[in-house]
Amino acid sequence: MTLPYLLIARMMVVWSALLGLSAGVAAAPLQAPSQAVSPLVTIPQLDLSRYVGTWYEIAKFPNRFQRMCVSSTQADYRALPSGQIEVVNRCVNDRGESVQAVGRARQIGDATSPKLQVRFAPAWLSFLPSVWGNYWVIDLDPDYQLVAVSEPSREFLWILSRSPEVDPAMYAALLTRLQAMGLVIQRLETTRHFR
After folding, report:
1. Would 180 be classed as within a structural domain?
2. Could you tell me if residue 117 is inside a domain?
3. Which end of the chain has fewer beta carbons closer than 10 Å to its terminal beta carbon, N or C?
4. Tens digit of pLDDT for each residue in 25-78?
5. Residue 135 belongs to a domain
6. DSSP per residue, 123-183
7. How far lies 155's CA from each of 52, 112, 134, 152, in Å?
8. Burial of 76 by CB count in 10 Å (0-12 exposed, 13-18 middle, 19+ buried)?
9. Mind listing the pLDDT tens digit for each residue in 142-177?
């Protein structure tokens, strides 16, 4: 998955620290003040065995912990014997160098839960709730080719694909669904990929 860089709030702070960046939240408003939004809903269930593998970031809400990434953002997920998922996020910075962060993800709830948490902090800090960030799968096509990942506050959003290029009609339909969920799609920033 590419963007997912995951994943989310406090975890983002950890990601930033690992890459030597200062973390923070985006300055743009999350939604129009007059817009009432219901709680964010995930997909009904997630088959992790189908979800693992490589995802390319197609677009994201700008965030400080990915500020150094200028292109080719992707995420690789691999199932571990422990039941957790190894997360390897990569991108290319403005000097043309590949940057990588390795983390762990865990499902929250049963084996089909679309709610995960991710951390990039060292394993010995895993007991601290603040090092885990929410990673909620909120939209996923039946073929597991295009996904949207966010978290309860809608502060973060990633759109990932199994390919660096997405069918324009599928992408437009996804944006319509995300907007209906109360996500401000105008905040999305497209990710460039070079071969």
Report:
1. yes
2. yes
3. C
4. 333 334 443 355 799 999 999 999 999 999 999 999 998 888 889 999 999 999
5. yes
6. GGGTT-GGG-EEEEEEEE-TTS-EEEEE-TT---EEEEESSSS--HHHHHHHHHHHHHTT-
7. 24, 24, 11, 8
8. middle
9. 999 999 999 999 999 999 999 999 999 999 999 999
Check residue 131 and give its pLDDT: 67
Place of tokens 């620290």: 17
Tokens 């799609």: give the residue: 185
Number of domains in the chain: 1
In a domain, 123, yes or no: yes
Domain CATH for 94: 2.40.128.20
